Amino acid sequence: xxxxxxxxxxxxxxxxxxxxxxxxxxxxxxxxxxxxxxxxxxxxxxxxxxxxxxxxxxxxxxxxxxxxxxxxxxxxxxxxxxxxxxxxxxxxxxxxxxxxxxxxxxxxxxxxxxxxxxxxxxxxxx
Length: 126
Hints:
Structural class: alpha+beta
Number of domains: 1
InterPro entries: Ribosomal_uL22 (IPR001063), Ribosomal_uL22_bac/chlpt-type (IPR005727), Ribosomal_uL22_bac/org-type (IPR047867), Ribosomal_uL22_CS (IPR018260), Ribosomal_uL22_sf (IPR036394)
GO cellular component, one term: cytosolic large ribosomal subunit
Strand content: 35-45%
Order of helices and strands: EHHHEE
GO molecular function, one term: structural constituent of ribosome
Subunit structure: Part of the 50S ribosomal subunit.
């Protein structure tokens, strides 16, 4: 006895992938995610490949997973995919302490982030 299974949260022409527990602050991750929002997936992959940010490899892996989900699970055309959404969420923060001068402590925070990428199939306009 459970509640009935809900419908699909996304439209029929969309697919998504989620990366959880990325060891980077949400603010830094959002800088990388902002560069691929609204772009075609080929251009987004190229931008992430040549990005100098450390986290761009994980973002690229998540984007490739969303593309694979679109192709294999939802039968979408890979050549007409666009990054519809790339939003960043805050996970949790590990707190650490480091000894400082005169018996004091300095607090060190190690933030984690979640990343959700939604790709959408768009019709080509001639």
